[in-house]
Design goal:
Helices cover 37% and strands 13% of the residues. With 386 residues, it is of the alpha/beta class. Helix 12 links the parallel strand 9 and strand 10. It is globular and about 55 Å long.
Length: 386
Amino acid sequence: MLIRVSVLFVLCASAWSDKVRKSGVAGCGTHEKILEFGYPAERYDAITSDGYILEVNRIPHGKNQGPQRDRPIVFMMHGLTGCSNSFVELGPKYALGFNFADAGYDVWIGNARGVGNSRRHISLNPDNRIDKYDFFEFTYEDIGLKDLPAMIDFALNHTGQSKIHYIGHSQGGTAFLVLNSMKPEYNDKFIAAHLLAGIGYMNYFPNSSLKRAAYFTNTIYTLARTSGIVEIYGPDWDESRSSAAMSKADNGQTARESLEDIIEELVSDADLIAGSSVKQFAHYGQNINDRKFRRWYYSPLTNLIVYGRSVPPEYDLSKVTVNTIMHYTIGDDLLDERDVISMANAMPNARVRRVAKDDFSHVDFVASSYVKYLVTEYILDDLRRR
């Protein structure tokens, strides 16, 4: 039987999967959600160096507060297949976005390229059968090197401030590590960072079934792309085109049915998945299989042309000099405690913090009401001291 194409869509499985409603191209509804809860809401478009148009959401102050200049900025970044909604969906009592706004911070929330409200480009049409291959030709590295700088610089320029606090969940942590290791000048723009289950090192990746599946990452990625599948949870994800492509790939229904089973398991408790590129998942899959936190693997020859070496270089975390706290939980089946400690040891100003609840999961950082008492209050106390 052909390798199950569905495995690709959970290879990194740092996928965000909870507590918001599926909306596809309509966007994440973050702006409307903020207003619905009675908070001031602003939204802006930030354009990346390669032409992606990203929505940036802002909660400039708390519900019962007035405008105030020079509030410290907290920038929040979501995980894979999530969007800015991750930080508001739990509502005013528990959501990080609202908690920080009420605590006196100017809250900015980013959206990565390809998600519902950032599924735009100055020249590429993601719904065009030709353009879509170029539009979705990105991994988490592009989010770190291009999306974060565009949005962070926009927030700083708009407010006239020079530094921010950063909170990143899952892939939001990955992007932060990529940015500051490859563009170390950005370290100076952060006061402090809190990474919530930030994915990076994968020497001890804990999920054995996904680890086995990751062995076939490159084959599955090539097959998916050949079948015309470059996007996950786009506007036609539930329509016939995706199903037909999957069926062609397997001479029948096995691959398609297998995909549906995996997706149903992944999002069984979810209300929203915001979308992403297949290549994002494949990059994580390569890292899991190679047990390396490194750049995209092409082929030995192409690697030599692109990187000047036959294998991709690893991200050098010694260049990440921001004061960073890496929050983790032993209930996370996508990130091992030993990898978190190793990452912190490689960074000159980082330390780890284990969440005091053994069954706290990877997505609970943005999906559980326990986050307020186990994580949010700690971060607020830490930021007040800086």
